[in-house]
Amino acid sequence: MTNIGNGGETSDSVTINISNSHNDAISFERKYSRSQTVNEFKVKLEPITGGSAGTMQLELYSGDRLVCKLDSDSRLLGSYPVEDGMRVHVIDHFQFVQENVAKFELSTEEYDKKSDSVRSFLRKNKLGKYNEAEMAKLEEDRKRQEAEDQKKIDETAVGARCRVTTKGHPTRLGTVLYKGELEGKPGLFFGVKFDEPLGVNDGSVNGKRYFDCPPKYGSFVTLKAVEVGDFPPEEFSLDDEL
Asked: What is the pLDDT of residue 21?
């Protein structure tokens, strides 16, 4: 599929802008062939966005209006209603290292001047970080959670019995042997010695020791995973096994 350009000549290329879901940067005025497949187009987007052609999803925008999704890898790019000045938005997990992105991006000052950027759209419509009411609520929620976490830390004594419930593990009983921060980790944690070898360490993490216990008996868990209470150690007997 080709367009008629100036002088009646056919043009196989289209000039579009590229944005991505990883950040709000835009690569402006990139030229691509309409005769390539969507998959080939995705491969060329890898070094720009840091995404993977095998997992990225593409959306075509005219300004801030979604035109369509480029959802068939085998179709030609030109078979979609893509025109000069449109924007292709790349959605992906972006696990690749973005090696060549810098040379395609504008400086922060230049980007702020663009009226058709994602940042401009968010600012104009007071979305995300530009929504003062929403950001104030998030900050209020954060402070409330910090206060609740600090209260739980203060009210929990080292040596207290507890029950730990975390995703992917059975419910475990143990004793709180540490409470507080972990070096290099945000937030507060409980260090727990389990009654059985259902943990992942011996009371140390990243080479730093916080409490002592046998290997595989210790773990550091988030506060919400720990319920402090009267949880006596379970007694096991060989008579219980068949």
From this structure: 83
154 secondary structure, DSSP code: H
Give the Å distances, CA to CA, from 197 to 9, 134, 193, 218, 240: 75, 44, 9, 8, 19
Q: Against a cut of 0.70, is the pTM above it?
A: no
Q: What is the pLDDT of residues 145-154, one digit of tens each?
A: 999 999 999 9
Exposure class string for 189-211: b at 16+ Cβ within 10 A, else e: bbbbbbbeebbebbbebeeeebb
Q: How far is CA 48 from CA 1, 26, 53, 75, 130, in A?
A: 25, 10, 12, 22, 26
The amino acid at residue 129 is: K
- Separation between Cα atoms, residue 43 and residue 52, nearest integer Å: 8
Q: Which amino acid is at 135?
A: M
pLDDT band at 98 (very low <50, low <70, confident <90, very high): very low
And the tokens for 98?
């973005």
